[in-house]
Amino acid sequence: MIEHIAKNKREYNLEKEHWRPAYHFSAPKGWLNDPNGLIYYKGYYHLFYQHNPKHCNWDSMHWGHAISKDMMHWKDLPIALAPDLPYDNDPDGGCFSGSAVEKDGILYLFYTGAIKGGNGLIQTQCMAYSEDGVHFKKYEGNPIISLPPSGVLEDFRDPKVFSVGDKWYMVIGGSVGGAEGGGDGRIYLYASDDLLQWEYKGNILESNGKLGTMFECPDMFELNGKWVVTCFPIFHPKNNKALYCVGTMDFENCEYHIEHIGTLDAGFDYYASQSFLDENGNRVLIGWLHGFSWMPWFENSGPTDIEGWRGTLSIPRVATLDKNNQLHLQPISNLDNIKTLDALEENIQITKTKHKLNPSDPHSFEIKISGNVSEIESRFLEIGLLVGNNKETKIELDFIAGVMTLDRSNSDVYTSGKVNCIFDNEDKFDLQVLVDHSCIEVILNKGRHILSANVYPEKEQTECYIRTPYKSATLRKVETRSLKSVW
Ligand code: FRU
């Protein structure tokens, strides 16, 4: 039945839509931001997303909808939620982000209804349900939570529902004092027995002036007996806009004890991720590969509106914890099914002269490099991507400082700047670079560090190389693969 309704094929012409990714998710048309309601339900992965089907700018938020058997090939379904009721019908608001759970075969969506009011937006937590996973009915008793715990109108959104034992929990992002007004970020915890009545239990996270003015899209999940909390702080003092905490949780007393804090992805464009369990019990995260204008490093939304779409999602990433409580996020293995090996080079000498890599699809490819730092005499590597027309995107690995940089200052005529992250400098290293027309994901040391960014190269930017700035380097393995379109 669901297969019957799902649209089998999109009508793209990748020739005309040159920046449209070939293997990352984008909306068929219009604007996309956060992934919502991710769930494996009745044999399909369901992906909902913040969406404006009418044009390529953020307004009147809908929930777009697609399904997949492998999280790579998606089929579009009709829009799941549209802003059409007094508590969610507003061009400056709509059906904001949220999550999904299954109970007794029914699919429940939790979202924030947002309309103008007070000094900004009135944000209430709402529910919709479906028996077939396609048609959704908004609950007659909405909103199910109308005010934050303070009892006054504040930023209060993005309910993520999960279960522990026979209890349902919901985390909601908030702010005491307002995201824009220099407020203090909060993640609130609510509990329920029936998904309808919710009781406030306490706070999972409080910024106390240190972590930002509002925590968007909070999430909470168990990994190896630890509890991971993720959220997307507005105005984090050190610009950690994709925060994760690892710790222990006492749900009875609502006490979260943090043991480690890190960054999910330090690139320009990674935000509002959500997690879910795949059919094999792996914890998978998908994020939005773009950003908003309030972000200090944000310049513009890029040129893809010319092609009638804007916004992409990351490759689904599987989360694991290492012995130091650090999160590793690695692309799902189903990504391998669309790859073709173009070249495998072993024990190669790299010098100042560019060593060219030649993926057969120069806009949709993967490069994997592995080696030992002790064999990199230069202790420095440069990787040039999407090179041509005097433009290039550069990745630099500085093994002395332990810094990885993604440099898009000369990538195209739309973007600029560099981002970097500090990595643990062990002898063995491996780097995976995914390039997909206008998306780049740079993944170091098995997902321990990631830098993601959008770039908008011209068609002629087709070259790719590795070099050292001085001396030489021996690389154990360099693999070049092309990736097929999933559309
Ligand atoms: C994060 C966010 C959410 C909100 C949604 C609106 O990107 O601002 O907090 O629910 O986008 O589209």
Report on this structure:
- By secondary structure, this protein is mainly beta.
- It has two domains: 2-331, Tachylectin-2, Chain A (5 Propeller), CATH 2.115.10; 339-483, Jelly Rolls (Sandwich).
- The chain is 1% helix and 52% strand.
- The chain has one helix at residues 2-5; strands at 30-41, 44-52, 62-68, 74-81, 94-103, 106-117, 120-130, 137-138, 156-164, 167-176, 184-192, 199-206, 214-223, 226-234, 243-250, 255-263, 271-277, 283-288, 309-310, 317-321, 327-331, 339-350, 355-356, 364-372, 380-388, 391-398, 403-407, 418-422, 428-436, 439-444, 449-454, 463-467, 473-483.
- The strands form seven sheets. It has a six-stranded antiparallel beta sheet, with no helix packed on it.
- Strand 30 and strand 31 (449-454) form a beta hairpin.
- The relative contact order is 0.13.
- Beta-D-fructofuranose (FRU) binds at residues 33-34, 50, 61, 96-97, 112, 157-158, 216-217, 271-272.
